[in-house]
Specification:
The chain is an alpha+beta fold and 175 residues long. The protein is built from 3 helices and 4 strands. It has a 4-stranded antiparallel sheet. Helix 2 packs parallel to helix 3. The longest helix has 23 residues, at 65-87. The model has no long low-confidence stretch (mean pLDDT 78).
Length: 175
């Protein structure tokens, strides 16, 4: 059994105001064990979407195997380069062509923080274990990379976008 409770719509008079204004009060008759009758609202409730509708993409879009292979190669190179930059074995400028300006600055800040620690052991041997490529939309891919260093395995997530004919890393998260 379900119970439906109907509240007065905004602007409707409360029972106290109804008595004061002389309007008749609604009559609720209940049968033991049953819910009270439902009165129709004067103003129907407005239903709104909680989330905006997703952007419509082409209905039959699928990525080409050539693009998938290219994205996988870029993801491997950028991941290996980023981890070598954090280790101090590669200059950050070598990644400038592949990265967004904001992501480049984030990686530079993280590199400065890692290199500034006393006694930090730098990882030099980076080996890519696995790359997973996921096409999101035409010109947008997301990849997940598992990379093994000397004593630990790290997860790296990248978002690549095609801009002016070049693939750029729009987001880089290193775990």
């Amino acid at each position: 059994m379900s119970i439906l409770i109907v509240l007065p719509a905004p602007g409707e008079a409360s029972p106290e105001l109804s008595r004061a204004s002389g309007e008749p009060l609604p009559v609720f008759s209940t049968v033991p064990g049953q819910a009270p009758p439902v009165l129709p609202q004067r103003h129907p409730a407005v239903i709104r979407e909680l989330r905006p509708a997703p952007a419509k993409t082409e209905a039959n879009w699928s990525s080409s195997p050539e693009d998938d292979a290219r994205i996988e190669a870029i993801s491997r190179s950028v991941t290996m380069g980023a981890l070598e930059v954090l280790a101090g074995t590669r200059p950050l400028q070598q990644l400038a062509r592949w990265m967004d300006f904001e992501e480049f600055e984030r990686l530079q800040l993280r590199t400065n923080l890692v290199r500034g620690r006393e006694g930090a052991r730098l990882h030099r041997n980076v080996r890519i274990l696995r790359v997973r490529v996921c096409p999101v939309a035409p010109g947008v891919y997301e990849t997940a990379v598992a990379a093994a260093e000397t004593d630990r395995v790290r997860a790296v997530a990248l978002r690549l976008e095609l801009r002016r004919g070049l693939w750029k890393v729009a987001a880089l998260e290193i775990g």
